[in-house]
Design goal:
Radius of gyration: 19 Å
CATH topology of the largest domain: D-amino Acid Aminotransferase, Chain A, domain 2
Structural class: alpha+beta
Number of strands: 16
CATH class of the largest domain: Alpha Beta
Order of helices and strands: EEHEEEHHEEHEHEEEEHEEEEHH
Number of domains: 2
Number of helices: 8
Oligomer: single chain
CATH architecture of the largest domain: Alpha-Beta Barrel
Distance between the termini: 39 Å
Largest sheet: 9 strands, mixed
Shape: globular
Helix content: 25-40%
């Protein structure tokens, strides 16, 4: 297990590569106390950061939603992603850009705080074990719900929005599940703690409308890949009782990639042909030539 504060390598921190152990922030940083922090999760395959432009654009958009501007250009951040990967000899792994308000002002208001940016990369295998993916992972229902977008910046990938995800996943793991499935505040199907969900019903692919959670970049790729295969994709309101109609269920996300689901609460599913197609097609896309991987599947 990687110890994330005691590791050899470098991290890009405010414009320069610094030794991994020196990439620290002050204990009174606003991002730590008031969650004024945004981040991205990215995969690097065969030396190419998958969908880097889309991830970086979302990082900048998330920062604006939290009321601050990242003090670098998109091009500089893209270049820094590759500098980190090359410096740490990461050809296949995970990349984590993060931006946060510093420690000049301590209080809810932090208009004058410096904006810091860091990017780290490390080798990281599949989020779920190969054994769990093969038979389908187990999801527990979370007691926490995705909030009303009127109460949070729901379209930002912001640190504070993941507090209930951590609580939900810890609770699920304590009871022998792999992850948790969340409803939204209206009782509709939403997402897992860090991945979007798809249902196969009568040969069509159904997925919740992302109106109070992130429209994941992997989610968008899988929708496009399914359409290329001629599979009908329906984005709509899905109620939890509709899971009983599903023939297959799977999750998508940068960490999860495409992961079949074998159990949700008391319901059981068998990963089938659509799951296999999406795993194979997404794997092929991530291993494509760099230009194709960045463009993703054709819409």
């Amino acid at each position: 297990m990687l110890n994330f504060d005691d590791h050899d390598g470098t991290i890009w921190y405010d414009g320069a590569l610094v030794p991994w152990r020196d990439a620290n922030l002050h204990v009174l940083s606003h991002g730590l106390h008031y969650a004024s922090c945004v981040f991205e999760g990215q995969r690097v395959y065969d030396g190419t950061v998958f969908k880097l432009q889309a991830h970086t654009e979302r990082l900048f958009d998330s920062a604006r939603q939290l009321g601050f501007e990242i003090p670098y250009s998109i091009e500089e951040i893209n270049a820094a992603n590759y500098a980190v990967c090359h410096s740490n000899n990461i050809s296949d792994g995970y990349v984590r850009p993060v931006a946060w308000r510093g420690s000049e002002m301590m209080g809810v208001s932090a208009q004058q705080n410096t904006i810091h940016v860091a990017i780290a990369a490390w080798e990281w295998p599949s989020y779920f074990s190969p054994e769990a993916r093969l038979k389908g992972i187990k999801l527990k229902w979370s007691k926490w719900k995705r909030p009303d977008p009127a109460t949070i910046p729901a379209k930002a990938k912001a640190a504070g929005l993941y507090m209930i995800c951590t609580l939900s996943k810890h609770d699920a793991e304590a009871e022998g599940f792999d992850d948790a499935l969340m409803l939204d505040w209206r009782g509709r199907l939403a997402e897992a703690t860090g991945a979007n969900i798809f249902l196969v019903i009568d040969g069509a692919l159904h997925t919740p409308t992302p109106d109070c959670f992130l429209d994941g970049i992997t989610r968008q790729c899988v929708i496009a890949l399914a359409k290329q295969r001629g599979i009908e994709v329906i984005e709509r309101v899905i109620m939890p009782e509709e899971l009983e109609k599903a023939d297959e269920v799977f999750l998508t996300g940068t960490a999860a990639e495409v992961t079949p689901v074998g159990q949700i609460g008391d319901l059981h599913f068998q990963p089938g042909q659509v799951c296999r197609w999406m795993i194979d097609d997404f794997t092929a896309l991530t291993r494509a030539e760099p230009e194709a991987a960045q463009a993703g599947a054709a819409e």
